Amino acid sequence: MAAPEPGTRGAEPFLPPEVQDEALRCVRCGFCLQSCPTYRQTGIETASPRGRIAVILALAEGRLSPGPEAAGPLDLCLGCRACEVACPSGIRYGWLLESARAALEPAVAPRRPWPVRLGRRLGFALVARPRWLRGLAALLAATQKTGLLRAAAALLPRHLREMALALPPAPTPALRRQWRRLLEPLPGGQGWRIPAVGTRRYRVGFFPGCVMDALFLSVNLATVRVLAATGCEVVIPAGAGCCGALHVHAGLREEGIALARQNAAAFARVGPLDAVIQNAGGCGAHVQEYGRLLAGTPEAEAGAALARLSRDLSRWLVEVGLGAARLGPVPGKVTYQPSCHLENGQGVRAEPRQLLRAIPGLELVEMADADRCCGSAGIYNLTQPAMAMALLDEKMARVRATGAETVVVTNPGCHLQMLAGVHRAGLAGRVRVRHLAEVLAGALAAGNGAGA
Ligand code: SF4
Ligand code: SF4
Question: What's the rounded Cα separation, in Å, for the pair 142 and 450?
């Protein structure tokens, strides 16, 4: 039997024709180049959106074989989608990247060194299983308490050591109990609810996520308190968990689809909702793609409905207002580090800033190039540490220049990266990192809105 042509899998084209068509729409104008963090760092064409689209097109047309030569430029891409916003032709770069990575995965996976293969397998399996993640968080809490983490971190390379030492305190059993006390079971084991404070204005779903639930439970707690205080009954369906964004962005499309199906079915079971609220920019952007991702599956309709209902917390609050709740004073100076996927994927730019400016006593100082990626980008800071740390150092210089004592974030990946940045820049003890929900919960508590 004849060997398949490069760029094909037997008779099948290597990439679907619609991917090729989309890549062909790039007119090579270069308007996207300066928006691209990796191009700005390197000045190399293959580290630019235009260069990467050329690589994807070459793969689609069979001029380039699937392998390291094609994977390298795509691996160095943050997937931040800043290029999408800059592109006058409206190229859907995020979708092109996702499609190319999924097609390349079978060819590149066996060539990764075995520790990387094992790490990826374990990592992706973990985030898909909330109980395992919670168990790991409990282990982390124990190692933080006993000092074992500090001792073990000393053996790690610098960037991993900084990330390990900058991890937030893992949720304590007391915090988990506090969370569980808030939840009232829904009939038939469908999930849980948190009643609205005062008159119920809306019934909303809440996406607990994976890393948020395991590591940033305090952010989830703050989020549901803000929602309840502003007149929302909050529903958390049983079976809702990791959105699958990390999997799909890393080329593990089938795993991502399985998680999306599970979430779509879970939210469909809990009855009518006015919205489904996210507090993670990356997860929200991904859930809003569920309609496309689940097309042709039994959950296609439920996925499309969930995508339509999905709202970032900040967008939702600006849309519906705070009801009877009032924001009280939170004195201090903050700067805002936007999540790339919240801005470039969901188009949510003004809302977090609007909410921060509405808090009495809080001064928002914009940092230069706030919209440039911090280098977190899912697992990018683990797979591409040199570029991730170069971008982080640049970001921390911008943070320092604002004189802010708090960096406000809207995504767990950015949260972890900024914590590492604070540590790396020697700003520990002087600069805090807080999620927008935590700041809002504090302001609602200060305004006697029962927000915290
Ligand atoms: S701005 Fe758009 S059309 Fe122009 S080179 Fe970049 S991706 Fe291609
Ligand atoms: S997604 Fe970000 S890193 Fe990748 S090409 Fe676009 S701007 Fe550059």
Answer: 32
Ligand 1 nearest atom to the CA of residue 86, by list position: 1
7 in any annotated domain: no
E-strand stretches of 329-420: 332-336, 362-364, 406-409
- Note the pTM of the prediction, 2 decimals: 0.92
Residue predicted with more confidence, 99 or 5: 99
Q: Which atom of ligand 2 is nearest to the CA of 38?
A: 3
Q: Are residues 192 and 296 in the same domain?
A: yes
Our count of domains for the chain comes to 4
Query: Is there a single domain that holds both residue 393 and residue 283?
Result: no
79 located within any domain: yes
Sign of CA dihedral 404, 380, 81, 313: negative
Claim to verify: residue 212 and residue 299 sit in the same structural domain = yes
Q: Is the distance from the beta carbon of residue 93 to the nearest atom of ligand 2 less than 6 Å?
A: yes
How many Cα atoms occupy the beta-carbon half-sphere of 153 within 13 Å? 17
Which residue range forms the structural domain that includes residue 277?
175-320
Alpha carbon distance 7, 58 (integer Å): 8
For ligand 1, the distance from its centroid to the CA atom of residue 335, given in whole angstroms, is 31
Q: Are residues 144 and 29 in the same domain?
A: no
Amino acid at 190: Q
The one-letter code for the residue type at 288 is Q
Q: Is residue 170 part of a domain?
A: no
**380-420 residue pLDDT tens:** 888 899 999 999 999 999 999 999 999 999 999 999 999 99
Single-letter code of the amino acid located at 357 = R
Decide whether any atom of ligand 2 lies within 6 Å of the 85 Cβ.
Answer: no
Model confidence pLDDT, tens digit, residues 270-308: 989 999 999 999 999 999 999 999 999 999 999 999 999
| End position of a domain, from candidates 133, 165, 197 | 165
For residues 20 and 105, membership in a common domain is answered with yes
- Residues 422 and 410 placed together within one structural domain of the fold: yes
Does residue 100's CB lie within 6 angstroms of at least one atom of ligand 2?
no
Q: What is the pLDDT of residues 87-126, one digit of tens each?
A: 999 999 999 999 999 999 898 888 888 888 888 888 888 8
38 lines ligand 2 (CB under 6 A): yes
Do both 277 and 251 map to the same domain? yes
Distance CA 70, CA 51 (A): 11
Domain of 276, CATH number, reads 1.20.1050
Please report which ligand is nearest the Cα atom of 40.
Answer: 2
Residue 434 DSSP SS3? strand
- Does any domain span residue 38? yes
Query: Which protein residue has the closest C-alpha to ligand 1 atom 1?
Result: 87
Are 150 and 179 within one domain? no
User: What is the residue-averaged pLDDT of the chain?
Assistant: 92
Q: How far is the CA of 350 from the centre of ligand 1 (A)?
A: 25
Residue 187 confidence class, pLDDT cut points 50, 70, 90: very high
**Does the C-beta of 249 come closer than 6 Å to ligand 2?**
no
Please give the distance, rounded to the nearest whole angstrom, from the Cα atom of residue 36 to the centre of ligand 2: 5
Query: If you take atom 3 of ligand 1, which residue's CA is the nearest one?
Result: 26
